[in-house]
Amino acid sequence: MPDQLPRVFDALVDHNPTLSGEEIIAHLVPPRQFETATLQSYRPDPSYASQAEAVAAVTTFTGAWTAPRGGFFSRRKAPAALPGLYLDGGFGVGKTHLLAALWHAAPGRKYFGTFIEYTALVGALGYAPAVNLLHGASLICIDEFELDDPGDTRLMSRLLSELVASGTRIAATSNTPPNALGEGRFAAQDFLREIDALAAKFETIRIDGLDYRRRDVEGHAVAVTDDELERALAAETGTVTVDEFDGILEHLSRVHPSRYVRLVESVDTVALRNVHPFSHQTDALRFVAFVDRLYDDQVRVLATGTPLDQVFPEEMLAGGYRKKYLRAISRLVALTAGEGV
C-alpha cells in the first residue's frame, strides 16, 4: 500500500479578501462565540459588584422595547430612558458578551459590528447611503469604539447622532485612546469627550473586574517546537493555514483591517512559524486587529519561536496603546491553550 502523501496546507498570505458594502452589512452580527449570548449566561464575578450592576443596567436598557406604554388617562409619564449605553471597563470583564446579549434582546432590524466595520461601510457605500441603510434600525451596537483616529471618530459621531435623532438606540464599548494609561479600565471621559454630540445621550456603565480568560486559562501563550508543530498539524482535521510570521505581518499591511474577518473566515487553526518580538508599532497594531478577529471566530493558534504573549516589547507596553496590547496578550493566551500539541 503506497505511503499517504503529506497534507498540503493553505497560507493566509495567498488570501486577498474583498468585502463589498452588502457583505459588510451581512457581517454586522455578533461573532460566532457570542451567537447565543444572553444576560443569563453572563457570569458575574462575585468579587466585583459592578458586574451584576451592569447586567441590571443592560436589562433596564432593554425595557424601552418591552415596557408597557402608558394609557391615554395615565396621570404620570414614565421618564424617558437615554438612547445610548456605553460599557466602560478593562479587557476581559465581559463587555462584548453584554453587548451581544443586548443585541439578541432587541427587536426588529439591528446591527452589531466593530468600529472598523462601520467606518469601512461608510467608505464602501458613501456617507449618505450608509445613513439611509442603517436608518430605522432599532439598535446599533459598536464594539471596540476606536478613539485613535480623530477623523473616523468624528465621522462616527456624526453618523450616530443622525441615527439617534431618528429613533435608533446605540450601545458601545471602547478601546483606549493614545496616551490614556491606567490599570484595569478604559477612560470613559475620553470616549464621551470625543463624541460630544452624543455624550449627553449616553448612560455610562463602569464594569470592574479581572480578565475572565485568566480565570479559565492560567500561564502564558504556548509556543511549540518545529517537531511539535509538525505533529500537531498532522493531527488536525479542520481547515488549517501555515505561514511565516513575517509574511503575515507584510500581508496584513496590504489588507484593510475591515477585511481581516474575511481573511480568517472558515479557518479552524492558524499556524505561525518563527514568531519574534515587534520592532514597529504599526505592525503590532495591525496584529492586534488580526488577533481580535481570530478570537471572535475562536481560531486556534499554533506558533513556533517567541511565545505570542512576549512579542510586545516593554517600550510598547509602556505607551499609549498598552491596553490594546494587553487585550491581545490575554486573547493569545486563550487561543494557544488548545489540547493536542
Automatic annotation (TrEMBL):
GO BP, sorted A to Z: cell division
Domain of life: Bacteria
InterPro entries tied to this protein: ATPase_AFG1-like, P-loop_NTPase
Keyword Transferase attributed: no
Gene3D superfamilies in the record: P-loop containing nucleotide triphosphate hydrolases
Protein name stated in the entry: Cell division protein ZapE
One term of GO molecular function: ATP binding
Keywords: ATP-binding, Cell cycle, Cell division, Nucleotide-binding
Source species: Glaciihabitans tibetensis
Cited PANTHER family: AFG1-LIKE ATPASE, ATPASE N2B
One GO cellular component, as annotated: cytoplasm
